[in-house]
Amino acid sequence: MTDNDSTSNAAAVLKLGALTPAPGSRPKRQRIGRGHGSGMVKTGGEGGKGQTVRSGGGKGPAFEGGQTPWERRLPHRRGYSQKARDIGHFRTRYAVVNLHRLAGWDSSVEITPEALVNVGVLKSPLDGVKILGGSKPGSDLPHGLRLRDVLVSASAREALLAAGATIDDGPAGEAGV
To answer: Could you write out the DSSP letters of every residue in the chain?
Structure first.
């Protein structure tokens, strides 16, 4: 090994102190209260005064506009749940997939909430996934689809079973939304 080889290898070594972010990947921070030309003066992006300006301020998810909230309107009964009434805290939100989105699905891959997210059909599975029967003309379902851990509407179930799909209801069963 010659002297030239060792110097070229040393120059190619990446050092922590030499790391810099890619150009444009780190925008310059907005400096608040630095003159009227910046547009960020006086309240500095916080809006007016009051509850909404404060840290953690604002109204909670179950706020009912000043009306006496449901947890204070109802009698206190031991062992009796009122969870179905308060959509702010207890609502179950389902990610919805229409049948026509599964038209190009590879039937060797099982349809699960994770698989739908990985393929890009869903951004997030939320509290669960429900397949609805909405379809577009000319979009036929592949034969032999397998579904697991998803809820299926009655019309979608009918179409899937007609196309030879197998639906594993699991513990959820055929719960309606």
So the answer is: --HHHHHHHHHH---GGG--PPTTSSPPPPPTTS-GGGT--TTTTS-SSSTTTSTT-S--TT--TTSPPHHHHS---TT---TTT-HHHH---BEEEEGGGGTT--TTS-B-HHHHHHHTS-S--BT-EEEE----TT-PPPTT-EEES-EE-HHHHHHHHHTT-EEE-TTT-S---
